[in-house]
Amino acid sequence: MSDTESYVYRYSWDEEDLMSYPFKEHYVKQPEVLAYLEHVVERHELRKHMRFNTQMLSANWTDEDRRWHITVTGDKVITSKYLITGLGLLSAKNFPSIPGLDTFKGDLHHTAAWPKDYSVAGKRVGVIGCGSTGVQVITEIGRHVKTLTCFQRHPQYSVPSGDQKVTPEYRAWINENWDDIFYRVRHSITAFGFKESEQSYHDASPEERLRVFEENWKKGNGFRFMFGTFNDIATDAEANEGACEFIRNKIDQIVKDPEKARKLKPHDVYARRPLCDGNASNGESYFEQFNRPNVHIVDLKETPIERVEAEGVRTSDGTLHELDVLIFATGFDAVEGNYTRILIHGRDGLSLKDAWADSGPTSYLGVCMPGFPNLFMENGPKGAFTNQPPAIEAQVEFITDLIAQAEKVGGEAPVIEATSEAEKEYSVLCEKLAANSLFWKAQDNWIFGANIPGKKRCLRFYFGGMQAYRERLAECAADGYAGFKPLAEGVVGC
Ligand code: NA7
């Protein structure tokens, strides 16, 4: 389930389609996301431009012909002037290596490669990972399985999603307000479509704080709880702790077994990717699942996993958690994961992997890399930490205009390349913006590359928000594409 409201988890540029394409619930589920994309492809006759079952193996830039030479499966080489990658921010699976995994007799599944029609009903199920995905899985399956053992490393500040059916009145309101909705998306921090709070936690009385938290808990959504309650939850320690305390109290109120509640309560700063529960069709929340006698929580900080055995998972206290199925909700080798798996060589044979080895994954404006001319990354490192479709649209618009300008003034074979200085300045800006946020204090997660052993620990996003990110792109264009080298012929950059 996407935790962005359905109406802003879509393309903004086809108004007729915005008005007519249906969505049943406040949040779209995977089959609906796929159906929507297929619909857009059909509607705009895009399939003829697509080539399926074709894996990109390598891409090499050559200065001689100013072209990318892209090798794909079947030993075919495609030559192109520009290479635009859409490799996905969260798509290379993180499958942690746990001793004994290959000895497990049951079924092993990663949530990112869920087998169609596989049922967990009546089985003894283990879930490793309680992030966005784990929380959704646990909320959904608790009532169907024989036992559910949740292996949790970090407890989470999860709030209800507030998912519900879209009523005709709600849909009519959306259709009457598309312009305002997308204006708000583009001029906000999160681009989630809700009204972000302009009030400081410090300007509210204790009663008002409680009222606002309660109201937003009822409305649901993690991003709304973080950015729709008060404007300083993500930046001010005291405001943040106010939100944490509210959620911890909720956990105490909901979870009847005090031992389970203790394990489920986070005490660190609320500054990881904000979570919300799934859409349990019986209306139950994530924390309510733990009132079921068949749902157990294992705190991996107290009792880490020692190994996987034929019959299940053995933790350090000697307990064997017997399982038929082990689900890995362990996330992704995020952001650069797919880039470093492919051999992308820029100028002088430099690979993207090597270019990022010391600095960690970086870019100019989340889109371009010095040394890699005419390569444009959709959702590259240091793109906006926001609802993704609007961030992708902003990048598509920027890349399209930049290429159009190059084609206009750059002669037969324009070369568009960011400067190292621009990339460095942009990285410093990203770090400054993140350092103003409490996210900087909670670096032990995928946003900083800390979820995978051996990954460079560093910032992977632009934290200035959607409006500022769009402004940054617009300023670059208005300044004659500042930060790009002058084109070989004509001038795009300055
Ligand atoms: P996340 O958010 O990276 O969550 C992965 C979870 O798996 C998280 O709870 C991790 O614990 C846990 N994890 C990862 N490796 C291990 C090991 N080795 N042992 C135990 N637990 C582990 O991935 P999601 O798929 O939930 O969500 C990714 C994004 O997709 C999400 O942010 C949305 O933007 C959409 P941790 O909390 O790090 O201690």
TrEMBL record:
InterPro entries: FAD-binding_Monooxygenases (IPR050775), FAD/NAD-bd_sf (IPR036188), Flavin_mOase-like (IPR020946). Coiled coil: none annotated. Keywords: FAD, Flavoprotein, NADP, Oxidoreductase. The keyword Ubl conjugation does not apply. One of its GO terms (molecular function) is NADP binding. It holds the Pfam family FMO-like. This is FAD/NAD(P)-binding domain-containing protein.
